[in-house]
Sequence to fold (312 residues):
Amino acid sequence: MATSGPAFGAVEALGPVDWDRWAASGAALEAALAGAADLDRRVYHLYLPALFFCVAQARRSGRRPVLIGIQAPQGAGKTTLVTHLLERFADFGLRGAGVSIDDFYLTRAEQVALAGAHPGNPYLEHRGYPGTHDVALGASVLGALRGLGDGGGPEVEVPVYDKSAHGGRGDRAARDRWRRVTAPLDIVIVEGWMLGFTPVPDAALPDARLREPNAALAAYHRWIDQLDAFLVLRALDPRYVLEWRVEAEEAMKARGLPGLSREAIEDYVRRFLPAYEVYAGRSPAMPPGRGLTIHLDRARRAAPPPAGEPRS
Fold:
């Protein structure tokens, strides 16, 4: 089962696999994910390769903490993946923390002002696209997290974004609700749907209204430059994202949290499909052994890359 996964070869290339730890971590993940569809493939083809990739980055690095970026489509399950990775790092004697680029969205008032400054632009009307984040805030927080390993301070305050606020449109939570991340740390995971996207020539954009978000991407290098390694989860077909995001929204509402209607969330996600068409698969260049791409099929299972595209 392990060696048949499409990402296993890339993980094995990072160094000998500790099979005892692989088995123990796999058993723990199976227990934690009991009842999940395609459990074996989810654990052994996706979660364990991601886990061992992250652990290898910490062991190969001479500094602490290492910052590992994860790019994954909306609804692909990256938040759940990160949760389980952070739990399993302890099995290797490592301490981790997670940050989402969602933490750095503009406040609701700032987002409304941004939309007002670009009337009729669907890509800047609501949170999500490049340009709807406080890039300076994100750069400051990531820099502070990196500094935890250099005596930069005993803790870092990380913003919290409340997606249920304003009927599901969201807002940054009050400062007394922000998270405190404390030292020592070995790994910091930074995740986001568009993390690592880079600008393209305007001629490559399918909609002229994407010019502002495309130009805004240039500033995000302030986040990318702080990353030590990068993991990409890439949908084989960008159209899967709509199904995944609707499922995620419905699950949130099933837990009793406010959320958008199905019609509103479908409208919201369709606005992102042009971005996936333009930027999907674009990730920052990393030194050998510092990058890994895992493709996902419609059921969010690790899958071989499309014909003609090299394996990681």
Summary: Residues 295 and 305 are 6 Å apart (CA to CA). The first strand starts at residue 66 and ends at 71. Residues 39-60 form the longest helix (22 residues). The chain has a mean pLDDT of 90.
